[in-house]
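note to self — DONT lose this again. spent like an hour looking for the file last time. sequence + predicted structure for the chain T wanted, 295 res
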Amino acid sequence: NRRQTLWAEALDTLARKHKVLIVVSAGNNTNVHANTPADAEQILQNYPQYLFDAESGLSDPATAAIALTVGSLSQFAAPAIRVGVGADDFVRAVAGVDEPSPFTRTGFGINGAIKPDLVHYGGNLLFEGFGNQVRRIRIENPDAGTGVMSFSHEPLDRLFSFRVGTSQAAAPVARIGALIWNQLQPALEGDLDPNLVRAVLANSASVPEAASNRIAAINDEEGILRVCGYGLPDTELALESGDRGAPRHQPVHGPQSRRADLRAAEHRVAVAGRARALRRRRADRIPLQDRVRGA
């Protein structure tokens, strides 16, 4: 579809009118929920190839051009310790550590826009087998070992709860954006442009090696962009000046910018190992707001 949905267009209008940065999740692919052995086996075997199917495309309003769209990565791949496990029972994670979450939705956006823009940790799913009959993959009631922990909305029953989803991934990105905004605002005269926050976030991001390798095995650099966008933002790198220099510009949507973004992605994949090594050398960094004042 080459036209924005009404919901996505409304978000862009609000972001432009009020000069705010809106963070949205890429959406969850509920087709990975399986209760039959055949379906569960198919999902396990087809991961991550099915992430490029049309059914795994972005949910509305994740295609919004000005909003920051966030996909999901798996942070853990080990289930929590279980009690009463049978001899024939088994459990394994669908995705590995730092690989795309099995339920995350992928781009591109309208007219080839890079969507999702970023990724963060939103949890993992488990392939569960009980005896010789039951095989399933569940989204509801996620395992504590592979889900994202948060405070429960029923604190009298339990203090913490575990969920999976791209909404869980969007929340930490919104937090990092707020920290950048708060740090930059005092150093600038007048209102802060949300695009500057977007640029700083993108400049701090990199695609984890595990995700890059898993996707590259079945697709190319374009596939990495479709699943991970510019990657996982680094809070410390975003809030300090560092080895990557000035933030790059957020891309202008369109065919020419897409080709330029692909070339940039190829370069970033090539230097990913060197960039990770450089990021460890943080002693000579200057706080971000001081760097803006000096500019």
